[in-house]
Design goal:
Length: 444
């Protein structure tokens, strides 16, 4: 199949590369010529494990190319996939300007029947709106398909090549069948439905996963008060097939370019139809507050005295294995520490540059290694569960810190790691692991 993918962000680039890996001929298009230059030079504009290698091998095999010439790409393809960004507007609603613009350009280039697929996350009804935009600009026939994306950053290739399911929203069964054939090599679990339901499946899935995270974070907060261990609780809950074990890791809340944006967008979509999505509002509120538990725990160990203290921060990306820092809890936590007069020393294995750029504030000391950040600090906050942090020698760490205080925002360490160390250790929802505190200090 000849496929054009418009937009080389996470969704577009990963999809394009994976469709090429399946043997299709794929052209990836981006307006941003600097990204195209990087890709044509064998590089990758984003950090995603395995992506660069797969792009290079498929390009060498002649199945994958990169260009800024949208019209030429569209003319060569039967299937055109729109995967441009839909960033949030101040209201929380998705900004559809980029997708509309891309649709207009596609319409202007059409030279025969096309299947036009929307992979970007868009509010219910957007596929119909975009179809109208195209219809108003061309007499050429086309079919609309909603093909929501479920990949996760950091495991995007695996999620795309071995998905839990594929959802295809279509109003023409023949176009739906072509999409089914395209995805059949990946999975048998293909849901074919109407376009509006497909659009809703995407938002409902992300909103549900976000709800699971806020739920377990609230359980963790209660565990801290009653003396229970949230990892035991989540494990015990997860054996129930109706609940399932995944997305029950308590921590400092979700970040990234998807859950924060999509939960707010769904609240807004419901509001547009006079429906108050009360549950999801609480999910967002709980998530926003959860990250500040790190500060509350520091407040406890510092006895309220932040000024002049040095705090090391390990982990800046919103999750491991990505350089994406959008809506990362580290942005708020470091911002608050600086506001409190703390000297912050930060380190991340991959996301230092992207964080520095998005954070935009001065005053943080950027360090070249985890130990360099910890050197001389009064406390260490672990905010992203990168594998290299879990492997650290805690005895060496305790020697370089000024005071052995460790606030583990992602429950990376456990009893056997801490055995024999002097750490004053706070994790999330596991009060029994708090060490070095002679009397139990209530966490605010
Ligand atoms: C999420 C969804 O998982 C994907 O299915 C979806 O395709 C994607 O959004 C999207 O809409 O494009 P992603 O944001 O890449 O993927 O990452 P996740 O692995 O879902 O993690 C999101 C956040 O939740 C991270 O900050 C992570 O630390 C946090 N999280 C996740 C927890 O705090 N606890 C958990 O148990 C799981």
């Amino acid at each position: 199949m000849n496929i054009t993918v418009i937009g080389t962000g996470y969704v577009g680039l990963v999809s394009g590369v994976c469709f090429a890996e399946l043997g299709n001929r794929v052209i990836c298009v981006d307006k941003d010529s600097s990204k195209i230059e990087v890709l044509n030079a064998g590089g990758c504009p984003i950090y995603e494990p395995g992506l660069k290698e797969l792009a290079v091998s498929n390009r060498a095999a002649g199945r994958l190319s990169f260009t800024s010439d949208l019209a030429d790409a569209v003319r060569q393809s039967e299937v055109v996939i729109l995967a441009v960004g839909t960033p949030p507007l101040p209201s929380g609603e998705a900004n559809l300007a980029y997708i509309q613009e891309a649709a207009q350009e596609v319409a202007a280039a059409m030279n025969g029947r096309k299947i036009i697929v929307i992979k970007s996350t868009v509010p219910v009804g957007t596929n119909e709106r975009i179809a109208e935009v195209i219809r108003s600009r061309t007499k050429q026939p086309f079919d609309s398909i909603s093909l929501p994306e479920f990949l996760r950053e950091g495991s995007a290739i695996k999620d795309t090549m071995a998905p839990d399911r594929i959802v295809i929203g279509a109003d023409n069964p023949e176009a739906a069948e072509i999409m089914v054939q395209l995805h059949k090599p990946l999975t048998e679990k293909i849901v074919v439905t109407d376009i509006r339901s497909a659009e809703m499946i995407k938002y409902a899935s992300n909103a549900f996963l976000a709800t699971k995270i806020s739920f377990i974070n609230e359980i963790a907060n209660i565990c801290e008060k009653v003396g229970a261990d949230v990892t035991q609780v989540a494990g015990g809950m997860g054996f129930d097939k109706r609940i399932g074990p995944s997305f029950l890791n308590a921590g400092i809340g979700y970040g990234g370019s998807c859950f924060p944006k999509d939960t707010r967008a769904l609240i807004q979509i419901a509001g547009n139809y006079d429906y108050q999505f009360k549950l999801l509002r609480s999910v967002v509120e709980v998530n926003q507050d959860q990250r500040f538990n790190v500060i509350r725990k520091l407040n406890t160990v510092f006895d309220g005295e932040f000024v002049g203290k040095t705090v090391a921060v390990w982990g800046l990306s919103f999750k491991p294995n990505t350089d994406d820092v959008r809506d990362s809890p580290a942005l708020d936590i470091i911002g608050e520490l600086l506001d409190f007069g703390v000297r912050v020393k930060a380190y991340d294995p991959i996301a230092m540059d992207s964080f520095r750029e998005l954070f935009g504030r001065s005053g943080v000391e950027w360090c070249g290694s985890a130990m360099e950040a910890a050197q001389g600090a009064d406390a260490l906050c672990l905010l992203t569960e990168w594998e290299e942090f879990a492997k650290v020698d805690l005895f060496q760490l305790q020697r370089v810190l000024q005071r052995p205080i460790l606030i583990d925002g992602r429950n990376v360490f456990d009893e056997k790691h801490l055995l024999g160390t002097d750490f004053v250790y706070y994790s999330v929802g596991r009060p029994s692991l708090n060490q070095g505190v002679k009397e139990r200090v209530p966490v605010l």
